[in-house]
Fold ChrR-like cupin domain-containing protein.
Amino acid sequence: MLMNKVTGREWTPTDFPGIERSLFRNNPEGGRSSVVRLRQGARFPRHTHQGTEEVVVLVGRITIGGVELEAGDYLFTSPGEEHDVVALSDAQIFVSSQKATPLIPE
């Protein structure tokens, strides 16, 4: 059993300003499950999904591929789909990716 309790959760900065990650686990196919914390205005660049991805908005409001999502909303992404993520407010999202998600050069 793997457990990650909210008390004592560790946050690691990403390469993108205003975005931090609390990693739950990496999976054998290159994906991972984590909670991502975004400051208002932060942007995770456009990327391509090689596997499926599930996102649940825990706190705040974001856009994924231009579609606005708020706390409680769920998004499923199929392999081959592309999108970016923009924080409309301070936000936290749960993200579980089946495989790695390479960035698309801008």
